[in-house]
Amino acid sequence: MKFVSTLLDYSLWPAIFGGALAITYTGLSHGYEITGFLIAYFCVAISLFILERVRPHEKVWHENDGQMPHDLGHTLLTKVMVEVTIITLTAVGIMKGTESRQSGVFWPGHWPVVAQVALGLVVSEFGLYWAHRIAHEWMPLWRFHALHHSPVRLWFFNTGRFHFVDTIKSMLFGMPLLIIVGAPMPVFFWGSSITAFIGILTHCNVQMRFGWLNYLFNTPGLHRWHHSMDLREGNKNYGENLVLWDLIFGTFFDDAARRPPVKIGIKEAIPQTFFQQLAAPFYWKRYQAEAKARLESKI
Ligand SMILES: [Zn+2]
Q1: Could you tell me the distance, in angstroms and rounded to a whole number, from the CA of residue 27 to the centre of ligand 1?
Q2: How many structural domains compose the chain?
Q3: Distance of CA 235 from the midpoint of ligand 1 (Å)
């Protein structure tokens, strides 16, 4: 039994990620790339929903935090409306720009697609890494990113809990680099798909182990440290898909000797409702002062 459990620990992440890529590829090869991606994403979500109940990483994270409607609201606003709009506009721009050429001057368009996608991930990750790192280290942007770190539990459902300003900022850092180097459409398509699959996996509350994958991809194991309240662990592992830039810039963190903390979240106050969560970053200092006064009046 122990052997089967260990085998599952190590195989679940690559199996789910690989399965999602295979479904997406099947859709793409039949001319239905968006449908293929959506089916793959739905399959990943359902698999994680079931696995979180069958073999949770932290049972206490099953407890309802009352944030589900708001998590869904932020996911719909940022992932569906903002990201789809920006990706569609970028795709239209690229298609118009590439009518007269196959790919940019700087782009190795003769490489196999897999190698081009890998290069695209490395390039865009440089921007995404710094977008994420600055959001943690510079207060004017932290106030928007704080929403993503405010939950007291991690599960697949709060993956998309981002303030829309935070999402726009990340896309402004990640996509222009690919446009400047002249990456073609397949690189954008696979880059966006891989980001979506790795993103939903990083938040999952499923018992898994990762081994050497921790030195390549942003895994749930690494991302749980990133949600630690202890900033010596939390201000680490900024990579969205890859950990390459964390390794290069010295922000990679993993500790195989102990489990990541169960108690996660942030020290600042965050409103409990959707519209207040959207508004609070715009008057952050006043909101924090009012929240502190409310807390002190109760004591
Ligand atoms: Zn973060």
Answers
A1: 32
A2: 1
A3: 8
Query: Sign of torsion, CA 102 106 112 116?
Result: negative
DSSP 56: B
Q: Residue 102 C-alpha to ligand 1 middle, in angstroms?
A: 36
User: How remote is the CA of residue 226 from the centroid of ligand 1, in Å?
Assistant: 7
Predicted structure pTM score: 0.90
> 258 in a domain, yes or no?
yes
Distance in Å, CA 28 to ligand 1 centroid = 32
CA of 189 to the centre of ligand 1 (A): 24
Q: pLDDT tens per residue, the chain (299 residues)?
A: 788 889 999 999 999 999 999 999 999 999 998 999 999 999 999 999 999 999 999 999 999 999 999 999 999 998 777 777 777 777 666 666 655 445 566 789 889 999 999 999 999 999 999 999 999 999 999 999 999 999 999 999 999 999 999 998 988 888 888 888 888 889 989 999 999 999 999 999 999 999 999 999 999 999 999 999 999 999 999 999 999 999 999 999 999 889 999 999 999 999 999 999 999 999 999 999 999 998 888 76
d(CA 130, ligand 1 centre) in Å: 11
| Domain annotation covers residue 263 | yes
CA of 198 to the centre of ligand 1 (A): 15
Ligand 1 centroid, distance to 115 Cα (angstroms): 28
Taking phi over 0 as left and psi of -120 to 50 as alpha, with beta for the rest, 156 belongs to alpha
Q: Quote the ligand 1 centre to 108 CA distance (angstroms).
A: 32
Which residue intervals of the chain are DSSP H helices?
Answer: 2-29, 33-54, 68-74, 84-97, 113-137, 139-149, 164-180, 185-202, 220-226, 231-234, 244-249, 274-279, 284-298
Q: Is residue 227 part of a domain?
A: yes
Q: Is residue 299 part of a domain?
A: no
What is the residue range of 252's domain? Answer: 2-294
Q: How far is the CA of 6 from the centre of ligand 1 (A)?
A: 29
**DSSP letter assigned to residue 78:** I
